[in-house]
Amino acid sequence: MTTKTAARLATADTSVLSGVRGWPSWAVIVLALVLTLGGTAVDGLTTGLLAWGLRIGFYVGVVLAALVVRRASIFTPMVQPPLVLVVGIVVGGMLFTQVGGLYGTALKIIGTFPTMAIGTAAAVLIGLIRILAQPMRSTRQGVRTPASHV
């Protein structure tokens, strides 16, 4: 009978939980897009307008993306929220609502700026907390790292 010893994950590979392997950057982009489009679908199929379903799907998507991504890829979920929201509005609007063409879509994107700002702020805040709480380099005293340009 063999026993497996749990190998400690490198900090670069962990999610917000140090014992759980994080998702790659492409997967968290897909996660945020799917949840945003899911919220858009709920709104489009129930009311015909993009409102709370879009917002909830977007917020949950970008926050989960910032929590489950690998520590080494934390930059991706910090900068993706505006792009995710625009894609969610354009694609979701075309599929599930009658937004009103290019002009109506542009107005909807402009109107959702507060949603975009709140989602981006949440993702950046979580990312900054993870950067500070999960440092990639050792900060031990007495260990000198060699200079790269001597």
Shape type? elongated
Low-confidence stretches: 1-5
Counting DSSP H or I runs of 4 or more residues, the number of helices is 6
Helix content: 55-70%
What is the terminal-to-terminal distance?
53 Å
The SSE order reads: HHHHHH
Strand content: under 5%
The count of domains is: 1
Q: Indicate the mean pLDDT.
A: 86
- Which radius of gyration do the C-alpha atoms yield? 20 Å
The total beta strand count reads 0
Sheet bearing the most strands, described? none
Main structural class: mainly alpha
Describe the structure.
There is one protein chain. This protein has one domain (20-133). The chain contains six helices and no strands. The protein has helices at residues 25-46, 52-68, 75-79, 81-96, 101-111, 113-133. The longest helix is centred in the N-terminal third of the chain and has 22 residues, at 25-46. The radius of gyration is 20 Å and the shape is elongated. The model is unreliable at 1-5 (pLDDT under 50).
Top keywords for this entry?
single chain, 150 residues, elongated, disordered N terminus, 6 helices, mainly alpha
